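hey can u check if this looks right to u? its 90 residues, i copy pasted from the old doc so theres a chance i mangled smth
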Amino acid sequence: MNSVDTCLIVGANDTTNQGAQEGGPDHPLAGMPVIEVWKAKKVIFMKRTMGAGYADVENPVFFNENTDMLLGNATDTTEQISAKVKELLG
């Protein structure tokens, strides 16, 4: 992930939770395999809310300096992004 410019995450709260690796042995997700999105240069999470995921564990990646949150309905937001990209590419 260190060579990745931007990671766009749709949902996937628990499977991208930095705490699983760095939260210590008592972390609720300790040892769970995760995608190390926090290592990308820019991280964008698409979620309905800032709420915790299925495991009800806060994701510290949300608060990293390289992370932005794009809150709202992922289907609608994805369609809007896709339309804008098509417009820009002509």
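The two ends are 30 Å apart (CA to CA).
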